[in-house]
Design goal:
The complex is a heterodimer of chains A (235) and B (199). Chain A is α+β, with helices and mostly antiparallel strands. Chain A contains eight helices and ten strands. With 199 residues, chain B is an all-alpha fold. Chain B is globular. The chains are: A alpha+beta (235), B mainly alpha (199). At the A-B interface, helix 1, helix 3 and helix 4 of A face helix 2, helix 3, helix 4, helix 5 and helix 6 of B.
Chain lengths: 235, 199
């Protein structure tokens, strides 16, 4: 795996392109060390602005104050605040898939972790009032459904009767941002799964599943596309 | 909690009365307190506007970016988490991101027909420098920047003020691909440690 940790400084000063940024933000969810480092480096980068201070025209103050008077501040993020250290509670396999999709070569026991509290993140998504459902039936009769909650910024993939991936391969999951497919994890073996996708689900305009070679890093889809979901066309 | 002292451009810092705590102001803003936001504006507007001008360069566009950033700061004020960094770092991150997005999207749409424009859009260094001189903090930061290696400083400034990606910075500085990000990170770490900010 490339050393994604080294991107912390470039991320703190917005010097990543969109794809790198998406990948690093996903990495941040699982890497406490990088999160801490980014926080401190952002504070350091803010110091640079001390050297360029320049008072704005007085009219800007009037415009800004008039504008904010017409807008209500967003509510605090209650869910996140009441579940501290969320990033540590994510299923362990997401951490493994954080930087890029690295497909396991088998022998690994993939297990959906549901013991992280009264209601897992997956359950929260499925029960979210704003949950959107996108279902696709595959040629062999297998069914794949993506449930997305914009409010929670999460999506869950549910599969039924999914045939096993070809030998030496695994199913890779992707979230589509504009025209870029961003790695969102790896599907555990088994025909019936519920998988929490990593990445920013709220801003994604689609999702997809591809078949990729096991044991390799896949920053972008290379293998066959199994199915895609278009978030813009809600059923 | 350790955070940067709010300073008002043009006002000497010695013996100045205690400035309002930015974290407290953000908390009040989250509850819809417009007076608190006005105080916040007065405490940070020179840095917000100056940063936008430095990155975006075009004064009218920089003002737009600053206004958009202030609106976003207001909307998200209730979501600021003091455990994750200083209030100033948080809000300048919003300003910087908007500024960078603006220069990159403007470039993508006009790159073809404005090849010479870059040289004809100098930053107004006089007014920028004048306001910045007033801040003792700025002097400390400049001194701290002197402790960086020239490559670290140049990479950091091209990224932060130029709005270039680390791969673009590598090309501009004739660095091997992948080393500019390391220079930027090393530079930030040295700046952080010299200035004693961050957790």
């Amino acid at each position: 795996m490339s050393d994604i940790h080294a991107l912390s400084g470039a991320y703190a000063v917005d010097a990543l392109d969109d794809l790198e940024r998406a990948q690093f933000e996903r990495h941040l969810r699982d890497c406490e060390i990088c999160s801490r480092e980014v926080e401190s480096l952002r504070d350091a980068s803010a110091l640079l602005a001390e050297t360029s201070a320049a008072a704005p025209p007085a009219a800007l103050r009037d415009r800004v104050l008039a504008e904010i008077a017409t807008v209500r501040p967003l509510p605090p993020v209650v869910t996140a605040a009441s579940t501290p250290h969320r990033r540590r509670r994510l299923p362990a396999f997401l951490a493994a898939a954080a930087a890029a999709v690295v497909i396991g070569t088998g022998g690994v026991v993939w297990q959906q972790v549901d013991d992280d509290g009264p209601e897992s993140r997956t359950e929260q998504v499925l029960a979210a009032p704003d949950a959107q459902t996108f279902t696709q039936v595959l040629p062999g009769g297998a069914e794949a459904t993506v449930v997305r909650s914009k409010e929670l910024n999460e999506a869950v993939l549910i599969t039924h009767d999914m045939p096993a991936a070809p030998n030496g391969h695994a199913y890779a999951l992707w979230l589509q941002h504009d025209d870029v497919m961003v790695p969102a994890g790896v599907m555990p073996p088994g025909s019936d799964n519920e998988v929490l996708l990593s990445g920013d689900a709220a801003s994604a305009n689609g999702a997809g599943i591809t078949v990729e070679t096991a044991g390799e890093e896949h920053p972008e889809p290379e293998g066959d596309v199994v199915v895609t979901f278009d978030f813009e066309s809600e059923a | 909690m350790e955070h940067l002292r709010p300073v008002t451009a043009g006002v000497p810092q010695e013996g100045a009365p205690a400035a309002p705590d930015l974290a407290d102001l953000l908390k009040l803003c989250g509850r819809g307190d417009q007076n608190a936001f006005a105080q916040l504006y007065d405490a940070v507007s020179a840095r917000v506007h100056g940063l936008a001008v430095r990155v975006v360069r075009d004064p009218a566009q920089a003002e737009e970016v600053a206004q958009e950033a202030f609106l976003e700061i207001w909307k998200n004020s209730g979501r600021f988490d003091p455990a994750k960094g200083s209030p100033l770092g948080w809000l300048l991150t919003i300003v910087h991101r908007k500024s960078v997005d603006r220069v990159r999207s403007a470039e993508a749409s006009t790159r073809r027909d404005t090849t010479y424009n870059q040289q004809n859009q100098p930053v107004d260094h006089d007014s920028t420098a004048e306001a910045a001189q007033a801040s003792l903090e700025a002097h400390r930061v400049r001194a701290a920047l002197e402790s960086l290696t020239p490559i670290q400083r140049e990479a950091l400034e091209l990224a932060y003020f130029g709005g270039y990606t680390h791969t673009e910075v590598a090309t501009m500085l004739d660095l091997p691909v992948g080393t500019a990000k390391t220079r930027i990170r090393d530079g930030l770490i040295r700046l952080r440690d010299t200035m004693g900010v961050g957790a």
